[in-house]
Design goal:
The structure is a single chain. With about 625 residues, the chain is an alpha/beta fold. It folds into 4 domains: about 5-230, P-loop containing nucleotide triphosphate hydrolases (Rossmann fold), CATH 3.40.50.300; about 245-320, Elongation Factor Tu (Ef-tu), domain 3, CATH 2.40.30; about 330-435, Translation factors (Elongation Factor Tu (Ef-tu), domain 3); about 450-625, P-loop containing nucleotide triphosphate hydrolases (Rossmann fold). The chain has 17 helices and 27 strands. Strands 7-15-11-12-14-9-8 form a 7-stranded antiparallel sheet, with no helix packed on it. The radius of gyration is 31 Å and the shape is globular.
């Protein structure tokens, strides 16, 4: 590496000691496409001498091969590491780089400028303390500049550098710089930044990056590097109440029981009282154990094992907290949600929410509104598409402990995960717990489901018939109910068309409405099963996520998925309602099997071939399999 300090060669231990004592600043660069983000960071790395000799040789060769600066060094190539990035001349992924000066160490995230990679930008901003927002001096404040500024504000960054780049291409015109600063300040008034520091730059030429440029004599502020070296960022960890998610209950032997995790915020000392908000149990810290021995105190970012003076119930996922400054503990929250997947958000669908070491099933119960991040205006909507931001209410399967994001970034963030693909589909920030949720409790009933079913001489069950339109679901379900009724079983059928005349008459056939349609029916089926009934549900129910939601509402063995496997060609031939004909003619949108997907069940309890056998035989097969009897009609 090109030596940044002579100590590296003379006294490596002294150099490492000096590095250890420096403070660390994480910052992010963002802005529109071609504003010069990668070039700026490449310049910082070059001028700070944080480049290995082989990197230097590769950079010189690549600059001539794929660079954009002729025979000169293309600093952006230090960051655009993906082959696709070099071919297109853009940043796609988030590139993290480390460099240091005599005063400070830095980790910088170079984030994409294209709108379709906004999710990557949110990822890079989530841990940063400063945002460097680049503006091309020729173009001024663009839509994407506003988008990134809003997202930077959303994730809690309070210090912004307005880096007006490419001043060399506007002849270092002071008025151009002043106009951009005025326009940006007017836009950012309501974003809640503590400081906005404008700096005129030329990343390519190096003006005002490391040293003040004589080409901008009218500018008297700091250079970019001097600002980054001196900006004071509030300690977002140790000045907050103590929080530590438990990642592992440490039991190496019968005499030791400790709780291991990384402290998210605050400090802890032996003798401090801590509490588990979920159970309300409290105790005092006995020891702070580490590999190198016990500590007298530990703070944010340290991985430790705590032992307590009392034996209380603590498991992985619990949040140990300051007993006097407790977090929120609830199962419903209002949140900001950034959608990060090509498949849109479907309110009512079950996802997994992960925060800290806790993972719980969750539903977006309400999309209150979307936020147009270009104008900051609220907009109505039923769903969120890739990169969109909305205010949402979440309902969790159980209460969790957390803080509002604006109070504690470490314990107020979460991600949403698709339950089938395990893909991260959303990232969010908790605004506050919904207090109404704490006023609702389960009312204990003397007569339970088993008692009701026993009185009827049967066991509660939900037979969930799924398949394409025209597969024969309703016909088969009706015959099964007739057979059960004839032998004295207590039943009820929930049919897709019938339910849409009443309970679900307000719903259409978009994916969002289909999800809500099945959610309501699943909850209704659960209530009927609780009444001791055998419930037959006949719905297309095209999405496996919602069929799984219905299954999860019931006890093991109560949900029986019956897949009426009738080929699409046969369903179209039947076309009793003429719906396929309309769909093929473009007169009926969002029709399952034509222009809306049907997700085939993976492990149904029963599969019947609707195109191979008459409905009477299929119904008889179902009754025989589930009840072990043959019931002719």
């Amino acid at each position: 590496m090109a030596h940044q300090s002579d100590l590296i060669a003379q006294d490596i231990h002294a150099y490492l000691k000096a590095q250890e004592e420096k403070s660390m600043l994480r910052f992010i660069t963002c802005g529109s496409v071609d504003d010069g983000k990668s070039t700026l960071i490449g310049r910082l790395l070059w001028d700070s001498k944080m480049i290995f000799e082989d990197q230097l040789a590769s950079l010189e060769a690549d600059s001539k091969k794929v660079g954009t600066q002729g025979e000169n060094i293309d600093y952006a190539l230090l960051l655009d590491g993906l082959q696709a990035e070099r071919e297109q001349g853009i940043t796609i992924d988030v590139a993290y780089r480390f460099f240091s000066t005599d005063k400070r160490k830095f980790i910088v995230a170079d984030t994409p400028g294209h709108e379709q990679y906004t999710r990557n930008m949110v990822t890079g901003a989530s841990t940063a303390g400063v945002a460097v927002i680049l503006i091309d001096a020729r173009k001024g404040v663009l839509t994407q500049s506003k988008r990134h500024s809003y997202l930077v504000s959303l994730v809690g960054i309070r210090h912004v550098v307005l880096a007006v780049n490419k001043m060399d291409l506007v002849d270092y015109d002071e008025q151009v710089f002043a106009d951009i600063c005025k326009e940006y300040s007017a836009f950012a008034t309501d974003l809640g930044f503590d400081t906005i520091t404008p700096i005129p730059l030329s990343a390519l030429e190096g003006d005002n990056v490391i040293q003040l440029s004589d080409r901008t004599p009218w500018y008297t502020g700091p250079t970019l590097i001097s600002y980054l070296e001196t900006v004071q960022i509030a300690d977002v960890g140790n000045d907050k109440p103590f929080r530590m998610p438990v990642q592992w209950v440490n039991r190496p032997d019968l005499d030791f029981r400790g709780f291991s995790g990384t402290i998210a915020s605050g400090t802890v000392r032996p003798g401090d009282e801590i509490i588990v908000p979920g159970s309300g149990q409290s105790s005092c810290v006995s020891r702070i154990v580490t590999f190198d021995g016990d500590l007298d105190a530990a703070g944010a970012g340290q991985a430790v094992t705590l032992t307590l003076t009392d034996e209380i119930d603590i498991s992985r996922g619990d949040l140990l907290s300051d007993a006097q400054q407790r977090p929120e503990h609830a199962d419903q929250f209002e949140t900001h949600l950034v959608w990060m997947h090509e498949e849109p958000l479907l309110p009512g669908r079950s996802y997994l929410l992960k925060t800290g070491a806790t993972t719980v099933p969750v539903q977006v119960t309400t999309l209150k509104h979307k936020i147009n991040v270009n104008t900051l205006q609220q907009e109505p909507g039923k769903s969120l598409a890739l990169n969109e931001v909305g205010i949402c209410n979440l309902s969790l399967s159980k209460a969790i402990s957390c803080d509002p994001y604006q109070q504690n970034r470490a314990t107020g963030n979460f991600i949403l995960i698709d339950r089938f693909t395990n893909a991260t589909v959303g990232a969010g920030m908790i605004n506050f717990a919904l207090r109404r949720a704490t006023n609702i409790h389960w009312q204990a009933m003397t007569i339970d489901k088993n008692a009701r079913a026993e009185l009827k001489g049967q066991k509660s069950r939900v037979l969930w018939f799924t398949g394409l339109s025209g597969a024969g679901k309703s016909t088969i379900a009706n015959l099964v109910e007739k057979k059960l009724h004839s032998i004295g079983k207590h039943t009820y059928t929930l049919d897709g068309d019938n339910v849409r005349h009443g309970l679900n008459r307000d719903l259409g056939f978009t994916d969002v409405d289909r999800v809500e349609n099945i959610r309501r029916v699943a909850e209704t089926a659960k209530l009927m099963a609780d009444a001791g009934l055998i419930v037959l549900v006949s719905f297309i129910s095209p999405f496996k996520s919602e069929r799984q939601l219905a299954r999860d509402l019931l006890e093991p063995g109560e949900f029986v998925e019956v897949f009426v496997d009738t080929p699409l060609t046969i369903c179209e031939e039947r076309d009793v309602k003429g719906l396929y004909k309309k769909a093929r003619a473009g007169e009926l949108k969002n029709f399952t099997g034509v222009d809306s997907v049907y997700e085939i069940p993976e492990n149904p309890e029963i599969v019947v071939k609707g195109g191979e056998h008459p409905a009477e035989q299929l119904a008889e097969d179902i009754v025989r399999k589930l009840w072990g009897i043959t019931v002719p009609l």
